[in-house]
Amino acid sequence: MGDYQAAVNSWLANPTTPVPEITNHALTTSIKYGFGVNFEQPLNDWIGLFGRWGWNEGKHESYAYTEADQTWLFGVGGNGKKWHRKNDRVGLAYVSNAISHDHAEYLGYGGLGFLLGDGKLNYGREDILEGFYTLHFWRGIYPSFDLQ
């Protein structure tokens, strides 16, 4: 995996390409590590709270799932028992994602990640409010409606 700060420093010292390139580095052994915590707390038999927190070191390139280096989420969710649809699910969640300083600097110079990198932007936190409803339609069929 490439190192964001090394890619920027190398590019600033010798800009042979229009933007820094994270894959343009000598072969090295790198470790990308992170942590995650999840909780779910029922309040009664039809509604509960949930949350997640995640973090990774943000110095090495991302290559799977997402390019967020930090995330936290809080929400409330439940089933449709109150309106006689016990197999339906409903929820509302707030999510906040961010990238590290090194990651943002690399992208700010125009570097590309596997999902991010649309050209010399200022990167800040991504805040999302999401509501969803999953309908038990018939047997194993569960269409879901989502608004972000």
Helix/strand class: mainly beta
Taken from the alpha-carbon principal axes, the silhouette is: elongated
Number of domains: 1
Provide the succession of SSEs: HEEEEHEE
What radius of gyration results from the CA coordinates?
A: 20 Å
**Proportion in helices:** 10-25%
DSSP strand (E) fraction? 35-45%
- Spatial separation of the terminal alpha carbons: 32 Å
Characterise this structure.
It contains two helices and six strands. The longest helix has 10 residues, at 4-13. 12% of the residues lie in helices and 39% in strands. The chain has helices at residues 4-13, 101-108, and strands spanning 34-42, 47-56, 70-80, 85-98, 126-134, 144-147. The chain has one domain (36-147). Strands 1-2-3-4-5-6 form a six-stranded antiparallel sheet, with no helix packed on it. A hairpin with a 4-residue loop joins strand 3 (70-80) and strand 4 (85-98). With 148 residues, it is mainly beta.
Q: Helices, strands, pairings?
A:
Blueprint lengths: L3 H10 L20 E9 L4 E10 L13 E11 L4 E14 L2 H8 L17 E9 L9 E4 L1
Question: Outline of this structure?
Answer:
The protein contains two helices and six strands. It has 148 residues and is mostly beta strands.
Features:
single chain, 148 residues, mainly beta, 6-stranded antiparallel sheet, 2 helices, 6 strands
